Amino acid sequence: MLVKPILxxxxxxxxxxxxxxxxxxxxYQPPPKVLKMADIGYPKDTGISPxxxxxxxxxxxxxxxxxxxxxxxxxxxxxxxxxxxxxASGCHxxxxxxxxxxxxxxxxxxxxxxxxxxxxAGIDLVPVMDSEVGSILVASSPESVVQHRLANGKGDSAPxxxxxxxxxxxxxxxxxxxxxxxxxxxxxxxxxxxxxxxxRVRGPDVGSATVLQGRFINHQALAAxxxxxxxxxxxxxxxxxxxxxxxxxxxxxxxxxxxxxLYYQFGDYRLEILEGRIRQMxxxxxxxxxxxxxxxxxxxxxxxEQQIKHLEVTNEEILTLDxxxxxxxxxxxxxxxxxxxx
Length: 342
What we know:
It is built from 9 helices and 16 strands. It is of the alpha+beta class.
């Protein structure tokens, strides 16, 4: 049983392709409020930055959003990139960047965009990998969500939530709203404070974004009420500096993505981090030796132990196919065509 996505395609979408121009397509204004880990009751050393989350802020122009929507609303994307997991409360579109959505990919990975996200987060960030650039969640009708969850043996069938309480797979996420939220009720993000209480953070308006260090904060996306279209775009980020810890988990992602491509990109970037660390360590190692200083055996062993742990985590996250709980990839072209005609 497939949940029914709520869509309102643009009747006159812009012609594609269009190149991303930060002067034309960025509309950034600083967040009105930024919360640090200490502000929400977490220890100051939680995570990899003092930053926790922020209120929504303008990021992209309306023209940029229309182009991104035009790239997503195609039969080709829905036929090849639509996923639905057993506990889904919406349709996931993943793996479309950059193959089917070059403008979206370029907008989210442009140096100007990365500088904005990094300054807000308080740490230099880069996208985790292409599979995590511009992931789309299309909200579905509450009735179909309940039916789908119950059909898959899920007891968490309340329509008031988009996700269960969870920690993200990667250090940071930036969520951009692709739908007009005028008059929308709900759609906030609930975060668990250090004392166990819950605080709601208002969701972004169309073209606006919010940033969260979600790997280290327990949170939940709340559903918007009234059966309105709600399409969010999520990009995950990791630290640019290879020496900073890259805390990661692929537990749920395998259900809503192409496994071989995911594992290729994941393995590649984790090895890239290892390569960067080894290069930096060798430079420091040889510099100390050339300066006539004796080997710091303790530091060397500590570095090696860190890399062993890095490889162990990488290996543990890559499962053989017989151990995977995968989600089905749906040929969504028929769904998309039915929505366009309705």
